[in-house]
Write a structure and sequence with these properties.
By secondary structure, this protein is an alpha/beta fold. The protein has helices at residues 3-7, 25-33, 60-68, 81-87, 106-109, 132-138, 174-197, 230-239, 315-321; strands at 14-19, 37-42, 72-73, 94-98, 116-120, 143-150, 160-167, 246-251, 258-268, 282-286, 289-293, 299-307, 313-314, 329-331. The N and C termini lie far apart (54 Å).
Length: 334
């Protein structure tokens, strides 16, 4: 995929969009609204439901493609011979990929003369991987953005064709930032495609020495780490919304630790003087929040909590039924 090739292709392209999650939806809409032709949408297969009543809603990209009346392809593996038999007759010029969930092999990319362009939710080479938005917030970054890259078999490692930056709001969750980045990235993708076709894009190779990883989130990533500073705890909570969410365990004398889902946290002013091995100790339990000793002498308040099997409660509601006291400990389940 070279600029000499691209400059001869300043005509409407035949596009196949590949995506599954919500991050791909604005890109799909932007592609449909462009001068190019969207031939089909490739998405992950639906997961079997135990029964129709409890069937989960369709993934966002599938739902959007259905509303747009576009053909939907959902091979279990996009790199299989069966998938290639579906893609080859479309004679696509270019694959547009975002939030799809599969890595395209060289053989798959070769089915489109211009290969593939991927929309990624970070300023590459930072945060390569499945959860770039969450890990940027977890790390306390103040800036994020989107990157358009030419796809290669190595994950998120291809040359960058375009980028756009945003400032991260200090109270913004991963869900909120991802919505903003998706809305920014869709139009940027189509602008980059057209600039590339006019020969106006100079691909920028990524410096591997600057690369950082953003692996797929696990449920255990939601266990609040009070050894971080209070701001770090808040950043962790923001990063884990909406999934996996955050939780901790209240250690009670004479009882098993009680798992609590944490609905909201907020750093508190002031410092504590407890030793490092006392991190996670309850300093105060009031209607305004349960304050916890964090790293570097900082203090965080747990303002909303949900015991297992119960609804989310304010601190005031929780304390009416659960006698949390100063000196109790919050932390892991051990």
């Amino acid at each position: 995929m070279t600029n000499s090739t691209a400059s001869q292709q300043d005509r409407p392209l035949r596009l196949v969009v590949m995506g599954t999650g919500g991050f791909a939806v604005p890109m799909l809409h932007a592609a449909v609204a462009s001068r190019h032709d969207v031939l089909a949408v490739v998405t992950q297969p639906l997961k079997p439901a135990r029964n129709q009543r409890n069937a989960p809603p369709p993934p966002p990209t599938r739902e959007a493609a259905t509303k747009l009346g576009l053909p939907i392809l959902d091979p279990p593996s996009v790199n299989s011979p069966e998938a290639h038999e579906l893609l080859r007759p479309l004679q696509a010029d270019l694959f547009l990929v975002a939030d799809y969930g599969q890595i395209l092999s060289p053989e798959t990319l070769s089915l489109a003369p211009l290969g593939g362009m991927n929309l990624h939710g970070s300023l590459l080479p930072q945060y390569r991987g499945a959860a770039p938005v969450a890990w940027a917030i977890y790390d306390g970054q103040q800036e994020s953005g989107v990157s358009i890259l030419h796809m290669t078999p190595k994950i998120d490692a291809g040359p960058v064709l375009g980028q756009a930056r945003v400032t991260i709001d200090p109270d913004e969750t991963a869900e909120q930032l991802e919505h903003r980045l998706a809305a920014l990235g869709g139009p940027l993708m189509m602008e980059t495609v057209d600039r590339y076709l006019r020969g106006e894009v100079e691909p920028v190779p990524q410096d591997p020495a600057l690369a950082t990883k953003a692996p797929r989130l696990k449920k255990t990533d939601g266990l609040l780490n009070f050894a971080r500073t209070a701001q770090g705890v808040k950043d962790q909570w923001r990063a884990m919304q909406p999934w996996p969410g955050c939780y901790t365990f209240w250690h009670r004398s004479g009882s098993e630790p009680l798992r609590l889902i944490v609905g909201h946290v907020a750093p508190r002013p002031g410092k504590h003087a407890l030793a490092e091995d006392a991190i996670g100790t309850v300093l105060e339990a009031t209607d305004e929040g349960i304050t916890i000793a964090c790293g570097n002498g900082t203090i965080v308040a747990l303002e909303q909590l949900q015991p297992a099997g119960k609804r989310m409660m304010t601190a005031a509601e929780l304390l009416r039924g659960y006698p949390i006291r100063p000196g109790d400990r919050f932390g892991d389940g051990q």
